[in-house]
Amino acid sequence: MVRMGFSRLCFAIVFSAALSASAFAVDSDRTHLGHNISIEAGEEVSEATCFGCSIRVRGKVDGDVTTFGGSVVVEDGGQVAGDVTSFAGDVSLESGTSVGGDLTVFGGRVRRDSRASVGGEVDDFGWRGTTFLVFGAPFVFLGALIGLAYWIVQRVRRPVVRAPVGRG
Prior knowledge:
This protein is an alpha/beta fold. It has 2 helices and 16 strands. The longest helix is centred in the C-terminal third of the chain and has 30 residues, at 128-157.
């Protein structure tokens, strides 16, 4: 019961952050929840962020590209001046593309053509277990603490049965 409430709280926080980010975003920012973002050739945006969806870049992004639970595809001629980060999704850089900053993937794979350039570091934490370690381990730890607290409370509340003292 407690875990269900905590997961709903986490979802509400992420959902609120997504909505507030899109409400205050400049028109050239793209922040979406649940539907894909496509930046067409000749189009220029300042930032692209996607929650539960993917981003396809054919044009230019002046800042960062970030997905949570989605993939990033930078197609031929696409440019990202900042960082590309994907949590629980893949990143694909096709021929003739460029990323000015770092490329970081948690819980996905990097597919990079040899003619794609990355100006910063490439960090691939692609093992799917990494996603569990980053997002799931805190929940397991919290569950263990709750279980321990419950066990201690039950142990303290258990009545002590004393053996009758015999007269001898």
